[in-house]
Structures are given as structure tokens and as C-alpha cells.
Amino acid sequence: MVSRGLFYIVTAILFVTGLLFMIYQHVTFEVPFLPGDQREVWSVEAKVEFDPTGNGAATVDFSLPAVQPGFTQLSQSTASVGFGTSYVMKQNNSYVEWTKRNPLGLQTLYYRAEFLRDDSATASSMTIPELKQNTEPEPFATAMREIADAAMQRSSNPFSFTVQTIDELKRQPEIASLLLSQYRREELIVHILELAKIPARIVSVLDLEDARRNRALSSRIAVFDGQHYEIFDPQSGVSGVRDNQLIWKNHDGSLLDVQGGQNAHVSFSILRNSVAAAQAGSLKVQAALAAGEDIVSLSIASLPLEEQSLFKNILLLPIGVIIVVFLRIIIGVKTSGTFMPVLIAMAFLETSLLVGLIGFVSIVAIGLVVRSWLSHLNLLLVARISAVIITVIAIIGAISLFTYKIGLTEGIKVTFFPMIILSWTIERMSILWEEEGYKEVLKQGGGSLFVAVCAYLAMSSAAIQHLTFNFLGLQLIILSLVLIMGNYTGFRLFELKRFRPLSDKIKNQLNGDEKELEADRLKAERQNIKKLFPDTRPRDYFRRDKEEYKSRQDKD
Amino acid sequence: MLGFVKQALSRYANPLDLMHFGIMGMNQRNVNYIGRYNPRRLFPLVDNKLLTKRMAMEYGVNSPYLIGTVEDVHDIDNILEILGDKQEFCIKPAQGSGGKGILVITGRQGDSFIKGSGQNINMHDLRRHLSNILAGLFSLGGKQDIALIEDLIHFDNVFAGYSYEGVPDTRVIVFKGFPVMCMMRLSTKASDGKANLHQGAVGVGICIRTGRAVRAVQHNAPIRMHPDTGKDLFKLKVPHWDEVLTLAASCYGMSGLGYIGTDIVLDKDRGPMLLELNARPGLAIQTANNAGLVPRLRLIEALPRRLSLNPQERVAFAKEHFGVYLE
Q1: Chain A: residue nearest B210 by CA?
Q2: Residue A102 — left, alpha, or beta (φ > 0 → left; ψ -120 to 50 → alpha)?
Q3: Is A119 found in the same domain as A255?
Q4: Of A197, B84, B94, B181, which has the highest C-beta tally within 10 A?
């Protein structure tokens, strides 16, 4: 006998562990507790085109997208006929390198990447640029200094200085037009920032808009204040990046390097996909695993697809089981065969409820008729069951054929019913009919169907499927609940109905010569015995024996 | 709406009342009594009537005389040798349940046998019945079985008119060797001669102290007369009452099961005999006795654990505390 205390501790540990697993998965992999939450995945395709020069070898280096807060890169791939592809690092920056010995005619190379819009992504590959000395020629240096001085007056830190510089360029159009005739606007702003000893860098961003083609990168300025940086739009001076802006290049290297080619050009196509949040979580895990990160995934989603679909159904079984346990132990519903209703409910999942119910009732009804004829033959059990199995298969075959011929393709799904289980159900119900009459058959058959429908409703719910599939911890919680229910010693709901007449009778009438309620009298006597023998611990019984008990009784 | 709820609720008993009266529910029986006091490994002793009988013979517990057993096809051919010159006997499957497969033979003329119902069967029918038992036609789950051939029971004359066909038997719930509650099960036309309450047999609660009828129920409703014979059930008094209780109480030491239902029949000549044991006795006995089992069981649980009493002392304790009539 395991002590109750240990039992409750184990149950509590199971429950808490399950709960912690669920929370861990919710936090680490951002699996939401409810389905329906959607995440954005952006597919970006960069197309690089160039004309080879003469008949030399060509090497193309294309900067890979930056690691940045707000996005997690899920995958990358290249498509380029006849080119060798490798991922290389140049001055600590990642590039994809295409190489070919003798390219002829216009060459087109593709690089594709998928990004998950991800608020929890915080990593960044941005490095602090070296501060350069401004060595621009006159008269541009003086003009820059003028702008810088004016901006310096009206600013307090590097970021406000940047805003004021952009502002000052608008305010002094003559100087601005002089400078802009020589420099690009973002270049110019970086040079002015150099005067103020503020590190800054031009970065390239891509505006993510659904179903766009032939997009180019636009320039932004990253301004650094120590470790922190902010991104500014050189035209408007607005700071920050929008949710749908992806930083592609965040270093000082080039975006595209072509050796042995000319007229190189890069353009981007963008496509948006929505994926369920749960799937997004698993995509992240896969990306992390692919990158060789050590991450413990407790989700079935990390298994191959084929195993996943298998597990999807297996993991639903405990839901059906806990419903059976609840309805049998707490409510007291009678079923034919303990877990037969769960298996029927699993079949309902495949067939849909109405078709399943009609199929089940007709198979069992026809089966019972055939079985009652078999019982006249007085066959032995194994032969009888086998005959019933073959009959069930024939019924299922006939139903699917018939419904198919009259154009109801739904009917074909009755083949999903577990035939052996159905045969045993028919056998049991038939014996029940002979022994207890048809009422008991209807009661148990109806009870089984009721439980099966309850289990079906629970198992077909999108929320529950989502939970069981994504949170393995839920299984532990179900296990602990089943254990707790297995320990329930109270009345079943149906027993309250069964004992109603008895309860009324005891309340109204004393038995025989009784003067008080027997339960009360025995309670008093029990307390009396406890008083005589107050010790209840096993080690206290050493000195007690029969004689003592008797002598005390005699005294009474 | 409120009225509807009230009406629906009025069909259910208040669980607090039931707890106060100490009525035992299925879950409590399974977890607190069967689960706690009946070791699983001992179940075969009571589920198999042959093992029960061998155990009873070993411990000197009175039970119907075993003429012989039919264990394989070879034995069926030798059935005449096994039967010897017995004129009356009863064939039952060792692992049957609910009275299935029991064949009562009350007379014999050479190779022709007379069934309890008066019908004649021949040797061929008898062999066929035996082979059906061996093949598991009557046993739970269709397991291979053994046929027992026992002496016929001639039930005591005091029960004449109390039972429609079938043998009236006495079910005593024995808890840790103390007889706790008792009822007689009388078969009726509705129960088809069988003694199971849910099949329509009459249950008569019996006072532990005196052996007198406390109350009678059929289908969960109180009755006073036997529905088929019209006999006043409240006049029922079990003879040899002390012997019945002592026999029941001694089944504890024999089987090792703490919570059992013992089925006892009273033979005209040989007195109380153990028919079979049940490790999962039903709850209907409470309705027949108009009392809950739990207070009685808890009184026994409150006794010191080291206290070891012999069956007579345990019966005396039960009679002192669980009686309903003074005499």
C-alpha cells in the first residue's frame, strides 16, 4: 500500500512539471495557448544580373541580409545555373559568392531568404564604425562646417545633431545645393557627422510590401552614441525603422562585388506569407537547429512530417481517455467496453459526426441481427467472433458500395471504423441482450455513444488539438488529473439517483427495534472504541492484546 | 425555469445525507475496500469455483460435495465412471458468472437424465453441455474452462414458498472476518430462477443478530410479499443462523480477502454450505437492509489492529453491534 501522502506528492509533481513544460514552450518557442494567432513570414528574392566582360572567370559577391532585432531569418537558398556557390566571410561580413569560369551572355543569379517577423528577436550584427577624419576638399569642407556649427548650436546629443543637420540642409538651400552637387545626401550627412566626431554609417534597407517586384534598397543612416545606434531617414530626418523595413546591409563593405562582369544590377521581389504562430515557433526551432544551436525542443513539430501526423492522433487519445474516466467515475455513465467509445470517437474524427453516428448505429444494429441468428447455431466463441468480424466487414463493404453508387461519397468513410472493436461490441451487446434484456443494451449502447460523442467533440476542437499537439506537458497534466480521479471515493452522479429511495427510506423509518439511526449509534460506538484504544499507530499495539480488550469490555 | 431545476434536483439524493447515513458508493467500494483489503493475487481463488472448493475442503469449510471434475475431452468420455451411481447432481462451469451454464439433474434412468425443469436429456446432450463448458462458452471472456460436478442441494423446508425455482441463497458481506451485513436472495419469475438482484430477484435484508427479515426489495423498490408465491417476506427467519454466520466469518481466514461476499445455502441434511465467494460484492445489499455499509465497516476498522479473534468471537461482536431486532 503506497501512502496517500506520497501519492499526492507524485501527482502534484506531475502536474507542476507538465505546467512548467507548457510555460517553457510558451516562453521559449512562443507557442501561443490558443490557435489562430498568425505571424508574418516574408520571402525576399534578390535577383543579381550582370554582363560578363570578355571571356574571363567571374566572381560575384553579394552581401547577405543583416541580423537585426524584429526579424528572424528562417532559411536561405540560391539558384544560379552553372555557378558554384559558397557562403564566405569578407572583413567579418557575410557574403554569398557565385563563381563561374566562362560565363557568356546576360547572367542571372538568385538569392532567396525567408524572414519571420519576430518581436522577440533582439540579436544584431551591427558593428560600431570607425570614426574617420573629414578630409573633404574646399569649398565643400567649409560648407559642411557651417552646417555642422549651426546644427551643433541647436542639438544636445548625436541623435538630435543628426536631426538638426538634416533640418539645416533644408533651411540653407544654397549651401545644400552646392554640397549635393558633389555628394549624395546620405554621404554628405555622414561627412558632416564626422566633423562632429560622431560615428555613423550608411545602411541599406528594404521596404517589405506584399507582392512587389523590382524593388531596390534605400539608404538610411545609422548614427552611434557609444553602443547605441539609431537609424535616420536622410530625406526627412525621421528616426527609427518601421516594422516592415528590413536592414539588408549594415556594414561598410559593398552590397555587390562583381569581378569579370559589368552592368551589374540587383533587384528584389517580396512576398508575404501568414503562418500560424505555432508553426512559426517550429520554423524558428528548425532554423536554430540548422544553425547548430543547442536548443531543447519539446514539440512534436521537430519531428519529420510523416511522424507528426501520426502523433497528432496519438496525442489526442489522452483527451478521449480523460473524458471516459470522468464520465465513468464522476458521472457513472455505463459504457460497453472501457475504451471502445474513444476508438469510436477517433473513427468519428475521420468520418465526421453525422456520417459516423449513422454508420455506427447501422453497423451495430445489423450486426446484432446477424449475431442473434448465429447464437442459434450454438457456435464456439472464437468461431462466433470470427463470423461477426466477417459480417461487420461485409456490412461496411455493403454500406460504402451502396452510398457510393447513390452518389454519397461520405459513406465510403465508414471503412475507418475499427472492425475488431465493433465486432466485440456487437458480441458483448448480444450477450447483454440475452442476459439482461434490451433495456440494458440500449442503456450501455446509448452510454457508449454519448461518451463517444463527448470525446469526439473534445478531440475535434481546434483549441484542444492545438494544445495537445504543441504542448507535450499537457499529457503530464492529464495523467495527474486521471490519477486524482482514480482516487475519487465520492458518489457518482447516477448513484445519487439510485440511492434516492434508500435515502428517503432511512430518513423516514427506523429498522426493527432500533431507537436511533444506526449510523449515529455506530458512530458513537466507534468513538467509544477509539477512546478505549486511543493508539492507532502500529508500534503502539505491542502492549495491547486480546485479554486487555476483553477485560475492558467486561468492566463496561 | 427554477421549478424545472428543482424538479430535476428532487430526483437526486443529497450527497451529504448519503454520507451521513454511511451509504457506500461504487468508487468508495473499489478504492477504499476492494482495492485496500483484497490483494489482486488472491482473486483467482474466488473467481474459480474449483479453487474455492479445494480451499474450502482443505480448511474444513462445509460446501457441496464434489463428485468429480471434467477437465479435458478425455474426461467427457469417462463421464459415466465419474458420475458413478449418483442419481442427482449439478454440473457447473468453474469460471462461469451469473448462474450461466449450470445444469441440474434430479433423476436418472440409465442413459437418460431428468433436468430440474422436468425435461429429459440423453447422454449425447450431457456430453455436449460438458464440451461447451470446456470450450469456454459460459466463462468470462471465453476462456477455456473446467466443469464441476457437485452433489445436488436440497434446500431447507423453511424456505418453501420463498423462492420461485432456483435455490434461495444467503449473501453475507464479511469484512476482515466480521459478518457485516446480510441478505437473502430469492429468485422470481422475472429473474428467471436466478439470484441476481438487478435481474429482478428479491433481496431480503437479514438482521445479523437474529436472522430475521428486516426489509425486502425488488428492483430497488420495497415489497412485502413474494411477487410469485405471495408469501409474507417479513416472516422469513433463517434457521441455523449462528452456523451461517460462523461459516461466513471463517471464509476470511481461508481466502485472505478482507472484503468478500459469501454465498451460503442451507441444505436440509448438511446445514449451511458455502456455495461461492465474491471479491466484488454489490451495493444493493444496502437497499435490502435499509442501512449503509460504511458505519459498520468503519466500526471494525476502528478496532485495534493486533486484536485477533476467532470466528465465533467475531460473530459475537457483529451480533452485538449490527443487530436490528433485539431478539
Answers
A1: A512
A2: beta
A3: yes
A4: B181
Same domain, A150 and A237: yes
B282 touches chain A (CB under 8 A): no
Q: Does A534 touch chain B if contact means CB atoms closer than 8 Å?
A: no
Residues A236 and A186 in one domain: yes
Inter-chain CB proximity B290 and A506 less than 8 Å: yes
Dig out the grid coordinates for A256 from the structure: 555587390
Together in a domain, A226 and A285: no
Q: Is residue A232 located within the same domain as residue A277?
A: no
Q: What is the per-residue pLDDT across A329-344, written as a single tens digit (0 to 9) for each?
A: 999 888 877 888 898 8
Question: Tens of pLDDT along A406-420?
Answer: 877 666 777 777 888
Task: Answer whether A332 sits within 8 Å of B11, measured CB to CB.
Answer: no
If one compares B202 and B137, the residue with the highest pLDDT of the two is B202
CA distance A323 to chain B (A): 17
Report yes or no on A302 lying in a domain: no
With CB atoms and an 8 Å threshold, state whether B25 touches A490.
Answer: yes
Q: What is the pLDDT of residue A301?
A: 62
pLDDT of residue A535 exceeding 90, the answer is no
The pLDDT value recorded for residue A428 is: 83
Q: How crowded is residue B114: how many other Cβ atoms within 10 Å of its Cβ?
A: 17
User: Inter-chain contact B18–A491, Cβ cutoff 8 Å?
Assistant: yes
- Look at A522 and B298 and tell me if their CB atoms are within 8 Å: yes
Q: Closest residue of B to A385, CA-based?
A: B142
Nearest to B27 among A490, A500, A542 (CB): A490
A450 and A346 both lie in a single domain: yes
Residues of A in contact with B325 (CB under 8 A): 512-513
Q: Write down the pLDDT at residue A456.
A: 93
Domain housing A237: 140-250
Total domains present in chain A: 4
Say which residue, A210 or B80, is predicted with more confidence.
B80
Residue ending a domain, among A461, A494, A518, is A461
Of A492, A502, A506, the CB nearest to B26: A492
Percent of chain A predicted with pLDDT > 70? 89
Residues A246 and A256 in one domain: no
Tell me if A214 is assigned to some domain. Answer: yes
- What average pLDDT does this structure show over A308-329? 87
Note whether residue A478 is domain-resident.
Answer: no
CB pairs under 8 A between A and B: 146
Nearest to A423 by CA among A366, A356, A353: A366
DSSP codes joined into one string, A225-256 = ETTEEEEE-TTT--BS--TTEEEEE-SSS-SE
In a domain, A469, yes or no: no
CB under 8 A, 24+ apart: contacts of A351-356: A351/A410, A351/A413, A351/A414, A351/A416, A351/A417, A352/A410, A352/A413, A353/A453, A353/A456, A353/A460, A355/A410, A355/A411, A355/A413, A355/A414, A356/A413, A356/A456
Question: What is the percent of chain B where pLDDT is above 70?
Answer: 98
Q: Which of A329, A497, A523 sits opposite B11 (nearest CB)?
A: A497
Distance from CA of A506 to the nearest CA of B (A): 6
Does A503 touch chain B if contact means CB atoms closer than 8 Å?
yes
If asked whether residues A116 and A256 sit together in one domain, one would say yes
